[in-house]
Here is the input.
Amino acid sequence: MIKSMSSSVSRRAVLIGAAATAPAFVLGHAQANALPPGAVNYQDTPKGGKQCDGCKLFVAPSSCKSVTGAISPKGWCKLWVKTE
Amino acid sequence: MDVKRIASALAGVLWLGSAGWQPAQAVPSFARQTGQPCSACHTAFPELTAFGRRFKLSGYTLEGGDSKLPPLAAMLVAGYTHTSAAQDAPPAQNLRTNDNAALQLATAFYAGKVYGDLGAFVQVTLNPVTKQLSFDASDARYVTNFKLFGKDAYFGIDANNTPTVQDVWNTVDAWAFPQLSSGFAANTVPGTHIGALAQRVGGAGAYLWWNDMLYAELTAYRGYERGTLEAFGLQPGPNPDAQKGVIPYWRLALEPHWGDHYLMVGAFGMYGQTAPGGVTGTGTDKYTDVGFDAQYQYDGDPWSVTVKAANTYEFQRLDSSFAQGLSEKSTGWLNSLKISSSFVWDHTYSATGGYFNVRGSSDAGLWGATSLANSPNGQGLVFDLAYMPFSKGAPGPDKAFNVRLGVQYIKYLQLYGGTNNFDGLIGTPGAGGTHNASGNDTLFVYAWAAF
Here is the structure.
C-alpha cells in the first residue's frame, strides 16, 4: 500500500515537474562542440592588435568555428590563432 | 617485528601503486584537434586554465585544428630519485636502495573527439621497470548543450574508472598537486577512500555545467572483480579487497569569474563499502567521505597564479575489519588536507609549493604495523620547479610536442604519528633511515615528454 502511494505521488511529481520546467529548456544542437563567448573571454573589440578576422577560427561574416553566437570581425577571445 | 617489516614494505608498494602514477591530461592530440597550443589549456601542464576546464566540460570535442591524424598521443616520464636515507630494500627489481634513475612510465593515449559529441581521454600505461601494462585513469563523455533558464547549459554523461578523474579543478584526488611524483620513493601518508579506488572501479554518471559557473555531478561506481583487476594490470594478489554494492560519488562546484580572475568553491563526497580481503560473512567496512575545496586562479597573460585547497573528512565504520581482527576499533576517522600554490611565467616557467596534512584516529590494528603511536598522522611540504620550453608551440613538424623538465622536493615533517623512528624499526637488522620521517625526504629530477 505504501509502495503504491509512493509510486503514484512520484509519478505525479514527475509530471508536474516536467510541465514546470519544460519552458526552461530550449534544446539546440547547432554548435554543440563550440563554447559560449563568456567561456573564452570574448570581447567585441580587438586586443593587442589581434582581432577575429585575423584568426583562423573565424568564419566570415560573423561566426566562429569554436565560439557560439554572433562574432564581430573586430572582436577577440582567448582562442585567437593567427591565420596561416 | 617481521609482520611490521612486511607491512612497511607493503606500504611502500602501495605508494608506488598509487601516488607515483597519477593521470596526466596534457595531451598533444587535444592540441592537434583544437589547433591551440598547449598553453591554451594549461598554465603549466597538466594544471588547467579556465579554457582547459571548459574544453573538458564540453566533452573533449572542440575542434579548430588542421590535423587529420586520429586522436592518439604518447607520454614518457623519466626521473632520478634520491631519498634522504637509503631504503631497506630496492623499491623494484633491478633498482638500488637509493639514487635510482629510470624511465618511470610510458603512456599511450586515445584522447579527443571520437564522433559527434562523444569524446574520450583513455590511457594505457606501461611501467618500464616492472614491465606491467595497466589500464590507467580514463574517462569518456557525451556532452550536449542547450539553454536552461536562458543560460548556456552543458549536460554530460561520463564513464570513468577513477573517481575524480572527470573533475576539471586541480584540487581533487586525481589531479591534486603534485600531479607527478617519483614512483621509487619510500613511505608517504595514507589517503582517503576516494583515492584508494583509483582504477579499481568502473562508473557512469551525469553532470550539468550551467551558466559557465555551476557544476553538479552524480556518478555511481561498482568495484571490479578480481579477474577484471588482473585483466587491467592492477596486480590484485590472491585476496584483493572487494568493493560491495553501488558506490555513489557526488560533486558540486561554483566558479564565478571576473575577467581573468576565477574563483571556485566546491564540495564532493562518496560512500563506499569494502570487504577487506574479499572475506564474506563479516559485513563490510563503510567509508563516508565528505570534502570541501576551493581554487583561485588568475589566468592572465603572461603570468598566472593558482591557489588551491581541499579538505576531505572520512567517517569509517569498520565492521568487517573489526570482526576479522584487522582493526582495534569498529569506528574511526581520517582527515586529509592539501594546500598548494603555483606561479607560472608565460606558460614556460613554474614554481609550486604545497603542504599536506593527514590526521586520523589511532588504531593498533590499522596502523600498528607502520606506526609506533598506532597513528596515521603525517604532514609535509612539496616544492616543484619546472621548465616547459614548448608550451606555445614546438619547432619542427609537431607543434604540439611538449616537454616538462622539473625538480621536485618533498619534505616530510611527520609520518605515522612520529618524526624519528615512527614505526619502531630502527635498531632492527637491516632497517635504514627511512624509518625517520626526514629519511623519506625525496628529491625527484624528472623529464616529462608528451607528443
Q: What stands out?
A: Chain A touches chain B at residues 24-29, 31-36, 38-41, 56-57, 65-66, 68, 78-79, 81 (CB under 8 Å). Residues 2-21 of chain A form the longest helix (20 residues).
